[in-house]
């Protein structure tokens, strides 16, 4: 039950970031702003997380891990509940930034407590269990927010998230041992500088999430434009995306264990295809069964490739970073959130200036840049293995 309690931490944090992604149209009407402006609420959350996470981790390193996690979950509960009662866009913007910034430690603290409470040979499995909270949130939490928000208004999605955060707080309080009850991990030596290869993988992470979130941040209006679906249909598509992401983690792990030489290049190609197939239909106004089929194919292929790349990069960084592993993996997490935030901002801007087809087109172009980086990186890797 301890690992389940810790898994709820990334679950509720991820849910808070994207719980309203299927409700952008009704939120825009109620708040009196454009859909692209509402989408930037997700950017505020993600970018605040990327910027505040490393700073908070450094400034709170001497504090009790469990108490700090409980405080973080309390902040997430209160900020999400307050978001349910926000009356205007500006208030909601700062509440989302507050939740993303001060809640940024939820995931790394959960991982820290999971590894401290387990023997060394069990730590990889413990981390994988905690990380599963992210795809499970995309499968269950975010679609649930779309359904609740459709039935009771978008504010209800934030209230639901607050309830899940409170549930996580209760489970951590009861089921997770305090720092004094678990084995301590020695500080070790000072980490080595981040290598050039590691920096390239960090760029891969950034491009992966920036390109995909050009579309993901605007998934609600995109699905509605192509299929005519309301909140229930959007939730179904979000469920498919979550399942696809979970499958992608397994595929990425398999590709890496098989030492596939150009796996990242191939997966970026899949991402380009998943985004590119939507551009023409969105500009031509294609609606109905054809639009539904293309949307489903995109939702299946995009997250699969995205999470497969994430699994491969995470594994390669953990193996190659050496004494800089903690710094590198923490920076990789920041690249994920920064990519999410900037991707949503790029997609929203593209929507404003060039219409519904522009967000996936922008994402496809960024993913194409990812292909170029992946080819250079993997060609060098193959040559090093042969030499």
UniProtKB/TrEMBL annotation:
Keywords: Cell membrane, Membrane, Transmembrane, Transmembrane helix. It is found in: Cell membrane. The chain crosses the membrane at residues 31-56, 68-87, 93-114, 126-146, 152-174, 200-221, 233-252, 264-284, 290-313, 334-351, 357-377. The keyword Ribonucleoprotein does not apply. GO terms for cellular component: plasma membrane. The keyword Chaperone does not apply. One of its GO terms (molecular function) is transmembrane transporter activity. Residues 2-382 form the Major facilitator superfamily (MFS) profile domain. It is a multi-pass membrane protein. SUPFAM superfamilies: MFS general substrate transporter. It comes from the Bacteria. This is MFS transporter. It comes from Tritonibacter litoralis.
């Amino acid at each position: 039950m301890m690992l389940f309690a810790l898994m709820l931490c990334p679950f509720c944090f991820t849910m808070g970031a994207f719980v309203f992604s299927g409700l952008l149209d009704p939120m825009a009407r109620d708040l009196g702003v454009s859909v692209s402006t509402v989408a930037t609420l997700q950017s505020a959350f993600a970018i605040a997380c990327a910027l505040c996470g490393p700073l908070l981790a450094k400034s709170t390193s001497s504090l009790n891990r469990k108490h700090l996690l409980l405080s973080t979950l309390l902040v997430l509960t209160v900020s999400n509940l307050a978001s349910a009662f926000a009356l205007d866009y500006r208030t909601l913007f700062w509440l989302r930034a507050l939740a993303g910034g001060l809640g940024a430690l939820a995931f790394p603290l959960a991982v820290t407590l999971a590894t401290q409470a387990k023997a060394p040979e069990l730590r990889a499995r413990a981390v994988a269990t905690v990380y599963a909270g992210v795809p499970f949130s995309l499968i269950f939490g975010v679609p649930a927010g779309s359904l609740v928000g459709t039935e009771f208004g978008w504010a209800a999605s934030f209230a639901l998230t607050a309830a899940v955060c409170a549930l996580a707080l209760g489970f951590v309080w009861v089921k997770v041992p305090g720092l004094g009850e678990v084995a301590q991990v020695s500080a070790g030596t000072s980490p080595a500088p981040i290598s050039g290869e590691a920096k390239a993988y960090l760029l891969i992470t950034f491009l992966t999430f920036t390109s995909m979130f050009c579309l993901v941040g605007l998934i609600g209006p995109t699905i509605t434009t192509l299929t005519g679906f309301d909140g229930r249909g959007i939730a179904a598509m979000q469920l498919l995306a979550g399942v696809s992401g979970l499958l992608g983690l397994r595929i990425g792990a398999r590709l890496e264990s098989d030492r596939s030489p150009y796996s990242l290049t191939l997966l970026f190609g899949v991402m380009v295809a998943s985004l590119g197939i939507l551009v023409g239909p969105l500009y031509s106004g294609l609606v109905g069964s054809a639009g539904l089929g293309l949307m489903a194919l995109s939702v299946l292929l995009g997250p699969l490739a995205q999470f497969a790349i994430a699994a491969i990069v995470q594994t390669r960084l953990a193996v190659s970073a050496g004494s800089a592993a903690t710094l590198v993996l923490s920076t990789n997490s920041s690249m994920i959130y920064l990519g999410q935030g900037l991707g949503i901002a790029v997609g929203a801007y593209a929507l404003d200036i060039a219409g519904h087809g522009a967000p996936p087109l922008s994402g496809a172009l960024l993913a194409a840049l990812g292909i170029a980086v992946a080819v250079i990186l993997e060609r060098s890797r193959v040559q090093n293995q042969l030499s």
